[in-house]
Amino acid sequence: MGVQFKLNGKMVESAASPASRLLDVVRNEFGLTGAKCGCKEGECGACSVLLDGLLVNSCMVAIGTLYTGPSVAQGTAGTWFASGQVTVGSSGGGDNFDAILWDGTTVIDSCRFTTTSVSGGYVAAVTLSGVLANPAGNIRISVRCGSRTDNTINYNASSYTKDSTLTAIRIA
User: Fold this and answer.
1) Four-point Cα dihedral 102, 34, 10, 57, nearest 10
2) pLDDT, tens digit, 9 for 90 and up, residues 24-77
3) Which CATH fold would you assign to the domain 3-61?
4) pTM of the entire structure?
5) What are the percentages of helix, strand and coil residues in the chain, rounded to 5?
6) Taking a C-beta distance cutoff of 8 angstroms, is the pair 8, 22 a contact?
7) Model pLDDT for residues 125-165, shown as the tens digit of each residue
8) Is CATH 2.60.120.760 what the domain over 65-170 is classified as, yes or no?
């Protein structure tokens, strides 16, 4: 199985290695040639793309560092309160992760967190919540790690609770 991620609003799967640059994958595998290869160092901006609503240099992003967490299909009308937790597992300590709670266009909440050592590996958990009126799509949590391609989002790794959850409640 390849690496799955959302590209221009659609879930896609790439057969490329998780260490492949996002720039190379969108240009060569999906034929989207708007982003160009310039300096290969993230300095010139020729490779800029929107990733989770943020402008990034795609020459510096490995596709294996993109993770999709839980999502809720709640509908697009009304005002919604969403709250969720995501737990990530890491093969190395001190990895920095960026997590966002969003609807595909609007960021409801976001944070940066770092994994810490526990018996058997490195994990971190973060809770995100907020209110959004008239969501553009499914409310979801997305996570990105800039340093490794072998991390995971845990769904039910412990026997006591769900490790990653998301709840959306219509409040108006």
Assistant:
1) -40
2) 999 999 999 999 999 888 889 899 887 756 677 888 887 776 667 778 877 788
3) Ubiquitin-like (UB roll) (3.10.20)
4) 0.65
5) 10, 50, 40
6) no
7) 889 999 999 998 888 888 887 666 666 666 555 544 567 88
8) yes
